[in-house]
Amino acid sequence: MAATTRTARIALLQHASPEGTPREAILDKVERMAREAASKGATIIATQELFAGHYFCQVEDAALMDLAEPIPGPTSDRLCTLAAQLKVDITASLFERRAPGLYHNTSIWIDPTGAIAGKYRKMHIPDDPRFFEKFYFTPGDLGWQAVRTKHATCGMLVCWDQWYPEAARLTAMRGAEIIFYPTAIGWYHGETPADAAQQRDAWVTMHRAHAIANGVWVVAINRVGTERDLKFWGTSVVIDPGGTVVAQGSEDREEVIVADCDLSKIEELRRGWPFFRDRRIDAYGGITQRFADSTT
Question: What single DSSP character describes residue 73?
């Protein structure tokens, strides 16, 4: 018997958030884009990572911690009102102030009534030149998340999480049919064209691999524009459970990317590639070690 067809129409909001732009101006732009997405029939709308401002993690500056806000707070409240007005789900990435001196890189899920239905705190925190996130963010402590909505069960991961197969697998094991990765990734000015092409290709390839290995839809939403030393490469993607890129944004334009996710493909692909059935869970204990050498 064929799997029952279920479709979720999603929208990715890809835009620039230049340094110095007032938060309200960016929120106004995002609201316009969200209304455009809803007018095109989108029922799930997703923002890029830390969408409400510039990517401040290129430098270590304690004063920038003032950009954080509580959840619920002004930005989440505005998004909750918007979700209720448009009668859509919204997943958004925010700089969360949990307590004095304690901050997270957090995604929230807002349902069509305007209620916050889920929260995920970024688990993997990078610390590299131009990505000094460990200075700002405490690693997440809410575990892997899958929010059940009217249209799909959706997982929330964030940017650097996208390089870890364990994160995608454990989120899929929670029942996620679509995994969302709000992202801020780009090139720095000293990289060669060959380096740039290789990095972007690796990024897309990782998302395709997560989709294939887990038999899920994968969605990555990236920003565009140049901020300080980084040029963000856009290329927001929607990938089906077979690894096919069904929608992709440009490298440099602000745009609303709308795609239909046929969730029946999950059942179809998993019947042909039964990776969950064939997992050797009795043999994976070593995955909890840092490295499998004689010193562990």
Answer: S
Per the domain annotation, does 148 fall within a domain? yes
Least Cα distance to 7 among 217, 219, 175, 181 occurs for 217
Sign of CA dihedral 17, 41, 218, 138: positive
In the sheet that holds 245-248, the strands lie side by side as: 146-148, 153-156, 178-182, 217-221, 237-239, 245-248
Bridge partners for 103 per DSSP = 97
* Separation CA 49–CA 275 (nearest Å): 30
User: Looking at the domain assignment, is residue 296 inside a domain?
Assistant: no
Question: Which tens digit of pLDDT belongs to each residue from 80-134?
Answer: 999 999 999 999 999 999 999 999 999 999 999 999 999 999 999 999 999 999 9
User: How buried is 242 (Cβ within 10 angstroms: 0-12 exposed, 13-18 middle, 19+ buried)?
Assistant: middle
- Asked whether the beta carbons of 289 and 268 are under 8 A apart, the reply is no
For residue 142, tell me if it sits in a domain.
Answer: yes
Q: pLDDT digits over 60-69, tens only? A: 999 999 999 9
Identify the bridge partners of residue 120 per DSSP, sorted by sequence position: 107
Q: How many structural domains compose the chain? A: 1
DSSP classification of residue 160: G
pTM of the model: 0.96
C-alpha to C-alpha distance for 3 and 148, rounded to whole angstroms: 19
For the segment 269-284, what is each residue's pLDDT rounded down to a tens digit?
Answer: 999 999 999 999 999 9
Active site residues: 49, 122, 159
Note down the domain range covering 53: 7-288
Contact 234/249 with Cβ under 8 angstroms?
Answer: yes
Rounded to the nearest 10°, the torsion over CA 164, 170, 172, 178 is -50
